[in-house]
Amino acid sequence: MSSLLSKQTGSSPSSRQHLIQVRPELPPPTIATRRVILQLFGGGSSGLACIKCCLDEGLEPVCFESSDDIGGLWRFKENPEPDRASIYHSVIINTSKEMMCFSDFPIPAHFPNFMHNSLIMDYFRMYADNFQLIKYIRFNTKVLQLKQRSDFSHSGQWDVETENKDGKKEKHIFDAVMICIGHHCHPNMPLQDFPGIDTFKGKYFHSRDYKTPEEWRNKKAIVVGIGNSGGDIAVELSRVTKQLYLSTRRGAWILNRVGDNGLPLDLIFNRVMDSVRKILPFGFFCGVGERQLNQRFDHALYNLKPKHRLFSQHPTVNDELPNRILSGTVQVKPNIRRFQGSSVEFDDGSVVEDVDLVVFATGYRFSFPFLASHVVSASENKASLYKYVFPPELDRPTLAIIGLVQPLGAIMPISEMQARWATRVFKGCIKLPSMAAMQKDIVCKQQAMAARYVPSQRHTIQVDYVSYMDEIAKLVGVRPNILGKLLTDPRLGLNLLFGPCTPYQFRLRGPGKWAGARQAILTQWERVACPMQTRPCDEPKCKRSLMWPLILSTAAVGLAAYVNRNSLPAFLQDPTALLDKIKVYLPGQ
Ligand SMILES: Cc1cc2nc3c(=O)[nH]c(=O)nc-3n(C[C@H](O)[C@H](O)[C@H](O)COP(=O)(O)OP(=O)(O)OC[C@H]3O[C@@H](n4cnc5c(N)ncnc54)[C@H](O)[C@@H]3O)c2cc1C
Ligand SMILES: NC(=O)c1ccc[n+]([C@@H]2O[C@H](COP(=O)([O-])OP(=O)(O)OC[C@H]3O[C@@H](n4cnc5c(N)ncnc54)[C@H](OP(=O)(O)O)[C@@H]3O)[C@@H](O)[C@H]2O)c1
């Protein structure tokens, strides 16, 4: 911690958390010049990343966590706890280990590429131990209220009220606050859309209350919703039930974890692929993907084909679902029209009798009950935040919401990047634009989301991993200099451009630079292969498939070079910068 900083006043750590001490010769208190004590709440993966980023920036974090452990959603409990996320026993993450790790702490090589929730907890514990984060967390302490102080426009400070597990309330003052409460705690249970549910004789509950399938052996069950929860639970239940029905009101494109040559699918989404996505007309890019998915199984034949395009919906990833459908244990059904006793009628008029269980895998709602609505309000999962982090209307940028995104990719590195940005904003190293500019950016993003995604409460905080990481990284000054690396370190440069956009890329330069980043990038494929090396095999080692990435990458670079022949170096430097220019040449733009 900075030696410039004076001591905290107040008799106990919990009494007056802040207190200003500025060197006498310095100008009046600004957050950049005084000791900043941050309050975080949420000891999940976003909270851990925030504590680490605060420490990296010389800030003093205090984290309040309402439960008795770290891990947030990934901390499995046999019984769901109120107001907390809850997962089923078998959850395996669908973002691969190289894409979901924190940027300066690779997941051990021997861990599987897609980890069970227990291994994810192991990784979070290693991270917390390695950077000694636990001592900053006050467990069993819930934040009840967060209010701007009366001198907020000058001080930017917050009054915070907490309550511990014995019901003891305390008040604190903090210089800045990061909210890391996740957005999968409160179930969306749209019973009003299901007439007759009150007459239903079976059992029903939300997917957050589902734990294991055993109880439903030889029963008839319906799962409503075809997000990742619906897909996972339908597959698992169908192994024991007499019959499982999967009800979806609009269908879905189903992706695999296992991509070509058995590699994790998310490793294919590199920078060039992201650029191609932006260059090509949306419909064309979707069409290419849909054709590939239909080669695996015909979505129309399986009655899953939606009306919308592949990238207009948050992806459902499920390698096993087509197998279950083909073997008849899962039957795909349309939306439920009504319940009557124990029978269920679907929109196509078909009726299933004697239903024992309905699982509503109908997603989640988020809210900020501890905040006044003029600070941040959320309605129907919409909140107006600058780049999903900063409320634009505050006099002082001392409140950040971390992890409130739904990425096509992993949340953890994104939360970490947001935390790197927020802590530097708090310190005054980065200035936010004017309120009008922030609001304009918010509206732009909302319009882009509305144009791309089907209207649904689940599509309000969507981000594309590579683009969003680059966007925030640019603000922080940590976006990799690809042209520079291609010229000075071609092996690394090619990996940055054509390899998976792993989080280590954002530790090569700028604040928070990590000396191990280059090596982590150059060894990432070894960590992908390592967990499979469990039997000596005489065959040549399974080669990773770079065919598609290379073909698409070459096509993209060629297209960009053709359209903008004299600007190729600039394109390599910043693959996204020329996109607007290129787009005008394309059909349908
Ligand atoms: C079934 C399921 C599977 C998922 N799979 C993936 C995946 O494959 N990849 C991926 O990237 N994401 C996945 N997610 C998203 C998941 O939300 C993130 O992976 C991640 O857990 C978010 O971390 P977080 O720290 O932001 O929130 P959480 O993990 O939810 O942690 C929030 C913490 O805040 C605490 N808290 C809340 N309110 C208060 C309060 N008032 N006071 C004090 N403490 C409070 C909670 O106790 C909790 O510990 C999945 C979500 C679900 C539901
Ligand atoms: N293994 C994993 O890694 C894993 C497992 C589970 C969840 N997750 C993640 O956790 C998050 C939440 O996933 P989720 O599946 O729980 O929720 P979700 O993605 O929001 O999906 C909700 C589903 O319910 C449907 N639905 C909502 N309201 C409905 C209504 N009134 N009537 C009929 N259908 C309705 C939605 O249909 P519409 O599309 O029509 O709105 C959608 O199919 C996601 O980020 C997901 O990726 C990951």
From TrEMBL:
One of its GO terms (biological process) is lipid metabolic process. GO terms for molecular function: flavin adenine dinucleotide binding; N,N-dimethylaniline monooxygenase activity; NAD(P)H oxidase H2O2-forming activity; NADP binding; trimethylamine monooxygenase activity. Gene3D superfamilies: FAD/NAD(P)-binding domain. It is a single-pass membrane protein. This is Flavin-containing monooxygenase. It comes from Sparus aurata (Gilthead sea bream). It is found in: Endoplasmic reticulum membrane; Microsome membrane. InterPro entries: FAD/NAD-bd_sf, Flavin_mOase, Flavin_mOase-like, Flavin_mOase_5, FMO-like.
